[in-house]
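User: Sequence in, structure out. Go.
Assistant: Echoing your sequence, followed by the structure tokens.
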Amino acid sequence: AVEEVGSIGMARGGAPLRAIDRRTAGARRYAHRCGATMAAMEPPRPQVLIDAQRLRAPNTGLGQVALHLGRQFLSRPSARWTPVFLLPAERLDAFGVPVAHEIASLRRRLLPRLAPRYALWHALHQDATYLPARGDPFVLTIHDLNFLGEKSPRKAARRLARVQRLVDRAS
């Protein structure tokens, strides 16, 4: 719903013209003069960062998850959000097409509050080493807890505590 700002003129047919209508009409005239369309002038869609840095090893299980999930997002683009992939520098061409991306760097990992912010951050696995700044919306996918049976009780407890901290931090 558009909030009426007040009548500031008359439209064709004598109906009052609201401020929002006048701004839109001006934008349309400007776009027409420049040869653009209103679609090109729409506000940017929110960006969702997808942590695909496991593509560093694309033949592993988590590398394959990142690859196929990224391909799926790209094959079915959303009108509501834009995917941005966190990629290792050597895998910028992993999806076969240019994609919006951020390079998985040491700076990004150690100083997340100095890096770009996103509407949502999706970590594709429970062992994520790249995390958003505290307070940013964060989704964590947990694929398995196999380490509980594979590691010594002390190591399993330590890893479980780390996963629990990530779960507590997730939105």
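User: And one key feature?
Assistant: The chain is about 35% helix and 15% strand.
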